[in-house]
Design a protein that fits this description.
2 strands; mainly alpha
Length: 283
Amino acid sequence: MPWQLLVGLSILLYSINGLFHRVLMKDELSNPYAQTVVFNALVGIFAFVVLLFRGGIHSFFSFDQLVLFFPMVCITTVATLCAFKGIKLIEVSEYTILLTTSRLWLIGGALLFLHEAFSTQKLIGGIAILLGVSIAQWRKQRFVFNKGALYVLIAAFLYASSEIISFYILRSFDAISLVVYTCLLTTIALVVIRPGTIKKLSFYFQPKRAGNIIVVSINDTIATLFMYLAYQVGRNALQIGPLMATQTIVTVLLALVILREKDNMFQKVIGAVTVVIGTIILL
């Protein structure tokens, strides 16, 4: 399957997921730590089921990969927590646009650590992405970067760092196996650090919430696999990373139609379109 098609499917699934996470985290009884545990555990389980149908785990870490894997798990855990904390405090359209800044960090990481080629075109595209984020966040002649926005920006940096490490490992590692290892170890780490989180898992036992988180987890499993496989096919993080930013415009439009998030929608759409233009320039 062409890497462009894999990335396109991943974008669509991630965009839908943004809405599902928003619905869950808006509930006053929801908890970002509990959602991180449930979400990662389910993603790991679904990926493991895929592995079983494929014949089991095919990849095991070398020492060098293991040295990178454990920091990646820690980074992913903190990033997910920050993202859930942020989405609980701001609208999904703002959340998605801010999270797009991870593409800038990913570009830098691809240049420095994956040794992919630099060009002026990529620099212009990166500036356009930042401009889009600024437009979306502009309120009454001042920038509104509240606590929720700060959480999301931190998550963006950490997600980019995690992706760079994962892309490096994926040069000689099975994509599905990496998803299983990462998600399940992230879940275990969080439960050990915050054992009280287990008491809050009952929130997801209600049928509607359970159905929601299951759909999100399946979507994320498939979307992550598509993104990883796209890199293994194309070996081009500088293209795949920015392309993933196009989920911004998809999520903003979905939030308008489905969640009726109309506040400052003109600015959000303009910001999202600018981000997408920056992404196209990067290609």
